[in-house]
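Email to the structure team, subject: OTOP3 protein model.

Hi all, the expression group asked for a predicted structure before they design truncation constructs. Nothing fancy, just the tokens so they can compare against earlier work. One-line instruction: predict OTOP3 protein, return tokens.
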Amino acid sequence: MSDKKVSRPCHHCKSGSAQTDTSKIHYEKFWLYRHCSSVQQRDRQAQKAGQLFSGLLAMNVVFLGSAFISSMIFNKVAITLADVWILLSILKVLCLFWIIYYLLGTSRQPHAVLYRDSHAGAIWIRGSVLLFGSCSILLNVFQIGYSTILVHCKSRVEIVFPSIGILFICTQAYFLWHHSKDCIQVQHNFTRCGLMLTIATNLLLWLLAVTNDTLHVEIESQLRNETTLCTCPNTTICKVFQKGYILLYPFNTEYCLVCCSVLYVMWKNVGRRISHHHIPHTKPKFKLQGVVFGPLLGTSAVIIGACVFMMYQIQATSLVPSRQVFVIYYSYYIVLLPLMSVGAVIGTMIHALEKKELDTLKNPTRSLDVVLLMGAALGQIGMSYFSIVALVATDPRDLLNSLALSYSVLLIFQNITQNVFVIDGLHRQRAVAATEAKHAGQHTVAAELPREEETTLSRKQEHSQTPPGKEEDTKEEQNREAYSQRRVSVLELGQEIRKASLSYIQTYSHLSWKRRVLREISFFLVLCNIILWVMPTFGAHPIFENGMERSFYGYSTWFVIVNFGLPLGVFYRMHSVGGLLEVYVTA
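Reply from the structure team: attached below.
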């Protein structure tokens, strides 16, 4: 009995100790989980607080600069353009100090850049930064040259401001080219504030370029031979600087907008840790496969648009442009815009028919692409509505007015349909890369060429093994041999072309009809958006030069409307090309 009594308590003690051990283990696991979750919550709270603080900083800088620019517009005596330039020069210098500190200090710290966003800083975005930045540098050079010639009647600030601008553009372009993919892991708040300050500075530079019509009015008054305070001693050089300034003026606004988009993605990536699921193992590459009709129709649109553009530029440079050139210009748009809209609608319907899953992973670049597409489209849509109101209120039955009215309505519809098609395509997952071509057919075609190469080699060996007595051939035999060799090379070239065409046809026939149609539409829209980007970028502005809306709203008001909407419209076309290329690759 005593043994049993003793054994029972011992048994309960063992079980009790086991229970206490397991309870301790569960407690430790629960505490560790709770500790990790609390750390993650604190990190999220710190991230949100840093984003809020840097956003408030940018908002205050933008409001201060906007107040200066608006005061200059409404009261040019109290707040002059020189005052605005001084404020923007101070902001540029602060941004330069921060960018240099980031390049030499922040990015070189240990464990500073552990992750890089593969979706950010696409090559076409960084290429546009370099292109528009180079044009902006030339614009500032023309402005410096123009102000230097007229230094007797212009202030020194008009030379200092573009000089600082050249340094700012070069440093910022280098920074965005090398560090646009960074997910910085140190000095989060300071980096966010620096990025937001740079974004605010670019926004203010864009706003000043949109609203400042001082030099444009001065150039127009000189072209009309009106009396001006500043008379240029060398008329030829002044005209060169003026023409260069007007030609490159839209590129400066494009540069500011592109830089803001890249800087915003960097701001979103501060402190971001990318998991392996976000890193693509195989990045889709652009290959000209699966398209036949899209390149043909798009190339036709580009060639016709280039001809219309050159005709327009020749006629519109005169003081009194002919009415016929505006009719041709609007007619080209009236034919092209419905084709683009129909293509976008068909592509959206095919997206609805496809059974593809949506890509729900967090992607700041794609989110920004959607916002930029919707926001940039507001420029052309806004100008179109202003134009519609002016044309309907004046004389909509006139031929030119009716063409301009149809152009504005079709432009609104085309922007909306294209946005729906591109945004829907960006959110689709990439199709599984199955074997798009049958290798058997390719091998049989590729096997034909080596056989011919063997025959040519055997012929060459036979010629090399001829006895020395037969080397003294006549010129006719040498000519016949050269002709035969050229014939063989032509046949080899034909075989190469035949092999490439057969492989292309096999690839095209292997794709499903949905993917073929999507690629055809995407490529067609890419080429159309390229020509629609080129025409307004290099000076075709009928919405300002036809004089109808300008006479209705007044010069200053319509200048601000056009300068606000036109850069956004050009940026929309350029940004649509990138989105459509991604839709083409992932189709």
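Residues 284-436+511-587 form one domain. The chain is about 80% helix and 0% strand. Ping us if the truncation boundaries need rechecking.
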